[in-house]
Specification:
Distance between the termini of chain A: 27 Å
Oligomer: heterodimer
Strand order of the largest sheet of chain B: 6-7-8-3-9-10
Organism (chain B): Catenulispora pinistramenti
Largest interface: A-B, 34 and 30 residues
Largest sheet of chain B: 6 strands, mixed
Number of strands of chain A: 22
Number of strands of chain B: 10
Strand content of chain B: 15-25%
Structural class of chain B: alpha/beta
CATH superfamily of chain B: P-loop containing nucleotide triphosphate hydrolases
Keywords (chain B): ATP-binding, Nucleotide-binding, Transport
Number of helices of chain B: 10
Radius of gyration of chain A: 34 Å
Shape of chain B: globular
InterPro entries (chain B): AAA+_ATPase (IPR003593), ABC_transporter-like_ATP-bd (IPR003439), ABC_transpr_LolD-like (IPR015854), MacB-like_ATP-bd (IPR017911), P-loop_NTPase (IPR027417)
Protein name (chain B): ABC transporter ATP-binding protein
Order of helices and strands of chain B: HEEEHEEHEHHHEHEHEEHH
Shape of chain A: globular
GO molecular function (chain B): ATP binding
Chain lengths: 856, 264
């Protein structure tokens, strides 16, 4: 039987080729994802590991190693600077370096602050011992004196800096400082800083400029012959480090820790990609199963002949499976190699979408080959089991029947299928509805997802029932436009509802997901703008860089502008409430109801005056307090406590109100060092937007670290990033959709083969070649539009449920249906269907009438 | 009528213009070089308007090939075919298709109805493709004669073989074609249904004035025709007018004596 199976594969080369493309793409996506994830992991690991190069021991602040963290400069823990000298004095230490990482905004030659991906520059300390350095210099050298600076190559090239130039950096005290550029180093291989502007100083300068209280890490190199463990013991015994809560690593431990962080950086991302890869693989499984089903049906006569000449049922079953196995192995192996190419494409795609996930080189793990090829084999052989069972049911006598090769027009789907499908769909909708009513957002989301999946499976099961009537409705318009050819196509598309449903299911999966993402992103866009309008109705906001404040004189200048109506400074920081750390916000009282309008549960936001506090609703319970009671608050650096009366509460989430809101006076009392981070502005009525904006820009022009944003700017930023995310999702699902379209082409090709005689008859009766081609194209188009329409209906429904869930939990969010976009999906689906039919239609039209009509 | 065909048999060129189908020196070769097979080896034959002609011959004689070439389903290697004065061999595929649509009707052994269409849709298909509708009177007449009135909404799968072939007959006649080609129309039918179909074909010639060319190897079927032409090894081997079982059998015996010797 093995020989028969091989002979079959060879004989049906053309039929198998299309199916193998679907396996190839599915396996390719999985392999590509695995290879790509392994590659970025290795790249991250390589660059992270550079930090462990030549390091025999390391000391980091309590909480352990943080590879790149420039946020929360204020609160971050550091290693006492005094420790470095003590470490250097140890007899077994060859050298020790204090590592620093903090904000260091760089001005370009026009005096504007350099921003990459919205981030300003970071400053690092360059070691005196080059062996502990982790950047390679492409020209010049490391800074050796206080007035010297080094810069990363990409920024230097972009902003036209050369060795010897003066570079201005805004220091921690917001003062511009000029440095002499002595070195340019390469960060392109470094994933920690990929795409960021990095400048380096000597260690003391780095501490001063970034405003760090101490080191993020002390890296130590031992004298030769000193063991890493011994060195760590000695470090731990140093009085200055003892009891400080610092974390100690040997060089080996540091390497391991860095490796695990590299994994942490990439594994979430790998999982994300893998989800899409598995969707693609499932879709290709559907297509393969359908193909085998059709092939077995078409070969019924051949199989019956085998049974006639004495093949047992088991042998027929085995032969079909062997075919699938050989076919699966070949296609999966090809898919693996396609995956290698695809992983490079993924890298390019993600970088184009603004996600910096660069790879240095491809890491082709044997496990990637094993998993992807194994999956491909499992999919093909698994998909062939049911058709193979169907093959065993072919009665030997069928070999003698003349009418074989023509498929009967099946009318009715099984009653069981209808029952089960309906039951699943209804149960799914009920579960989904229950999920929507859940108050807890994450639980609601889980329940809703479950409901959506069950509904989806139910609808797919009902596919054969839905297909015929829907196709009849869809065929109405082409029927009007193209007349009898389109009517024939409609009849053909509806003749085998089970096959059509199986073929279009693959497309439905992809389109459902794309539609869902489209509806959700469109709704986020719409509601975010609504939310700003309703709850934060500013015209402009002047914002400072992270960890910096808007200087007092800038606020004063803004207040003095005659073009502006309301100007309110906003503060944001951490305070302690009844012993627990909470985020606190404050805004000038003039901003109440004009610039902030939270969704109040009790009281009014304008009740917040010195001596009172408003809380998020859930904080009332978690802090064991209530309206009218008092809470004790302290500042971030301790200091005298305040007793504040709780006067109001507002809705928890969704619109970005902090956990507590206090008066500006109380805020300044608790944290005198912290200035406002934002100034919100309403223009005076009657002043044009252009005039008010020009006035604000002029007022803050002297301070390069301040940015002016209008509502429109925020909207644009949000839209850009949402569009990028949507584009990426669509691209990821694009492959699944492509596989589904190949599935349509495949089914159509096979249908054309089995209808060779019928096509010849139509040609004999007067159907021209062009009409035959058009007929098949309309047929494919109807199938594609059926799949797309089902997907849009379901995806729209799921999207609506998701938006509803979020709206219910947060009070913010309204459904926005992007009709134009969805219509484009339908039209694109129709066009893709037509394209899928090109090859089968050409082949059908080439057939000569006389030979085909006599072929039984 | 017999005088006309007799005259044509002697000298086609001198015949009056009353031929629905006229083939001259028709050659059809399959393959090339040493393996080439001459399925038609210079066939010259004419089919008069309003005449019912049967083509007979043993298996492999080329009768199906002849019909395909006459009907514009297959391209002849050499020679000429005229239907209603139009030279088929000079037409491109599209023109040929349009000609088939309007001027030729087909009836096949295995009925060849489209399974997705109802009987009515099947009957109307050729006219539908041309964007035409049959005159009401003609429709009523054909449907009435074939007794299909109660079956029009049925699909082929719901009809018996005889009913299906009657639907096929209605489809072939609905466009009032120049000629109806019937390829073994009784081959898949029981004797009663077969007789019905033959009776209808005769009647369509006698009363409706149609021209019918039928390929068959059934002597009984052939005897329903006005004339039987014989083909063997791709060559015309005479004809019989007003055929009877005896005259047809005699002619067959003459063209394939070996087969008859073995069989009878």
């Amino acid at each position: 039987m093995f020989k028969t199976a091989l002979a079959n594969l060879r004989a049906h080369k053309a039929r198998m080729l299309l199916s193998s493309i679907t396996v190839l793409l599915g396996v390719g996506f999985v392999a590509g994802t695995l290879i790509f994830t392994a590659s970025i992991k290795e790249s991250f690991f390589d660059s992270f590991a550079r930090q462990a190069k030549n390091v025999d021991a390391a000391v980091t602040p309590a909480g352990g190693l943080r590879v790149s963290s420039i946020e929360n400069q204020q609160d971050k823990k550091t290693v006492d600077p005094a420790a470095l000298d003590a470490v250097r004095d140890l007899p077994d230490v060859a050298s020790a370096e204090g590592r620093v990482l903090g904000p260091a905004p760089v001005l370009d030659k026009t005096g504007k602050v350099v921003k990459e991906n919205g981030n300003t520059g970071v400053g690092v300390a360059f070691p005196t011992d080059a062996k502990l350095g982790y950047f390679d210099f492409s020209s010049g050298r490391a800074p050796a004196a206080a007035g010297e600076i080094a810069m990363d190559k990409a920024t230097a090239e972009d902003r036209h800096f050369a060795l010897g130039d003066a570079v201005t950096v805004i220091d921690h005290g917001d003062q511009p400082e000029s440095f002499h550029l002595v070195g340019i180093f390469d960060t392109s291989t470094d994933k920690t800083y990929a795409g960021e502007t990095v400048v380096g100083f000597t260690t003391p300068t780095a501490l001063r400029v970034t405003g760090s209280a101490g080191y993020d890490q002390i890296a130590v190199r031992a004298k030769s012959g000193v063991g890493q463990d011994q060195l760590v013991t000695e470090l731990k015994d140093l009085p200055v480090l003892d009891g400080s809560g610092d974390t100690f690593y040997t060089g080996a431990q540091l390497t391991t820790e860095l490796a695990s962080q590299a994994t942490g950086y990439t594994s979430g991302f790998g999982t994300f990609l893998l989800v899409f890869a598995i969707i693609a693989a499932l879709v290709s499984a559907l297509v393969i199963q359908n193909t085998f089903q059709i092939l077995v049906a078409q070969r019924a006569r051949e199989l019956a002949l085998l049974r006639c000449v004495g093949a047992t049922r088991r042998q027929v079953f085995g032969s079909t499976l062997i075919e699938a196995f050989v076919f699966g192995t070949l296609a999966s192996a090809a898919g693996f190699f396609a995956g290698i190419g695809l992983s490079m494409g993924l890298s390019a795609l993600l970088n184009a979408a603004g996600l910096n996930m660069p790879t240095d080189h491809l890491v082709i793990d044997p496990s990637a080959a094993l998993y992807s090829i194994g999956l491909g084999l499992l999919l093909t052989v698994g998909s062939a089991v049911l058709p193979a069972r169907a093959a065993t049911r072919v009665a030997p006598v069928q070999a003698l029947s003349a009418q074989l090769g023509e498929t009967r027009v099946t009318r009715r789907a099984g009653r069981v299928r209808v029952g089960v499908g309906l039951l699943l769909a209804l149960a799914g909708i009920a579960v989904g509805y229950a999920g929507m009513q859940t108050q807890d957002r994450s639980r609601g989301f889980m329940v809703l997802t479950l409901g959506a999946m069950v509904t989806f499976i139910g609808v797919l099961a009902l596919g054969p029932v839905i297909a015929s009537p829907v196709i009849r409705v869809l065929g109405w318009l082409p029927g009007k436009a193209f007349g009898p050819t389109a009517r024939l196509a409609t009849a053909n598309a509806g003749r085998n509802p089970r096959r059509v449903a199986a073929t279009t299911a693959a497309l439905t999966i992809g389109i459902t997901l794309v539609t869902m993402f489209t509806v959700v992103t469109a709704s986020i866009k719409a509601s975010a703008t609504d939310s700003i309008k309703q709850h934060f109705p500013f015209d402009y906001q002047v914002v400072s860089e992270p960890d910096r404040s808007v200087p007092g004189d800038a606020v004063a200048k803004l207040r003095a502008l005659p073009e502006l109506g309301t100007v309110a400074a906003e503060y944001d920081g951490k305070i302690t409430v009844n012993g627990g750390s909470e985020r606190a916000g404050a805004i000038d009282a003039v901003g109440y109801h004009t610039l902030i309008n939270p969704i109040m549960k009790q009281g009014s936001i304008s009740d917040v005056v010195p001596g009172t506090v408003a809380l998020q609703d859930s904080r009332l319970t978690s802090l064991h307090t209530a309206i009218g009671q008092t809470v004790t608050v302290t500042g971030p650096n301790g200091g005298p406590a305040l007793t504040l009366k709780v006067v109001a509460s507002y809705q928890d989430s969704g619109i970005g109100m902090p956990e507590t809101t206090i008066s500006v006076a109380d805020f300044q009392h608790l944290d005198p060092a912290q200035g406002p981070d934002t100034v919100s502005v309403l223009a005076k009525s009657g002043v044009t937007l252009a005039a008010s904006r020009a006035a604000i820009e002029a007022a803050v022009a002297g301070d390069p670290l301040l940015t002016v944003n209008s509502v429109a700017d925020y909207k644009n930023q949000l839209n850009t990033s949402l569009n990028q995310i949507l584009a990426m999702f669509t691209a990821m699902l694009g492959l699944a959709i492509l596989i589904a379209l190949i599935g349509i082409a495949n089914t159509l090709s096979l249908s054309v083969l089995e209808r060779t005689r019928e096509s010849a008859l139509l040609r004999a009766l007067g159907l021209t070649r062009a009409q035959l081609r058009r007929m098949l194209m309309v047929e494919a188009m109807l199938m594609a539009v059926l799949g797309v329409s089902l997907g849009i209906v379901m995806g729209g429904g799921f999207g609506w449920a998701l938006v509803h869930l979020v709206a219910k939990a947060t009070g913010v969010g309204s459904l926005a249906i992007p009709y134009t976009q969805l219509l484009i999906y339908v039209l694109a689906g129709a066009l893709a269907g037509v394209l899928a039919a090109v090859v089968p239609a050409r082949r059908a039209a080439r057939q000569t009438v006389a030979t085909a009509i006599t072929e039984a | 009528m017999s005088a006309i065909t007799r005259a044509f048999r002697e000298s086609p060129e001198s015949a009056p213009g009353g031929y629905a189908v006229l083939a001259r020196d028709l050659v059809k070769t399959y393959g090339s070089g040493a393996t080439a097979v001459r399925a038609l080896d210079g066939v010259t034959v004419g089919f008069g308007q309003g005449e019912f002609t049967a083509i007979m011959g043993p298996s492999g004689s080329g009768k199906s090939t002849l019909m395909h070439c006459l009907a514009g389903l297959d391209a002849a290697t050499a020679g000429s075919v005229q239907i209603g004065g139009v030279e088929l061999t000079k037409l491109n595929d599209k023109a040929l298709t349009l000609l088939r649509r309007r001027r030729i009707g087909f009836i096949f052994q295995s009925f060849n109805l489209l399974p997705t269409l109802t009987a009515e849709q099947n009957i109307l298909l050729p006219l539908d493709l041309a964007g035409l509708k049959p005159p009401k009177q003609w429709w009523d007449q054909v449907i009435g004669v074939l007794d299909l009135g109660g079956r029009l909404k049925h699909r082929p799968g719901e009809l018996s073989g005889g009913q299906q072939q009657r639907v096929a007959c209605a489809r072939a006649l609905m466009s009032r074609p120049e000629v109806v080609f019937a390829d073994e129309p009784t081959g898949n039918l029981d004797s009663r249904s077969g007789a019905e179909v033959l009776a209808f074909l005769r009647m369509s010639v006698r009363e409706l004035g149609q021209t019918v060319v039928m390929v068959t190897h059934d002597t009984t079927a052939a005897c329903a025709a006005d004339r039987v032409v014989f083909l063997a090894d791709g060559i015309m081997r005479g004809d019989v007018l007003s055929p009877t079982p005896d005259s047809v059998t005699a002619q067959l015996r003459m063209i394939r004596p070996d087969r008859v010797a073995a069989g009878e």
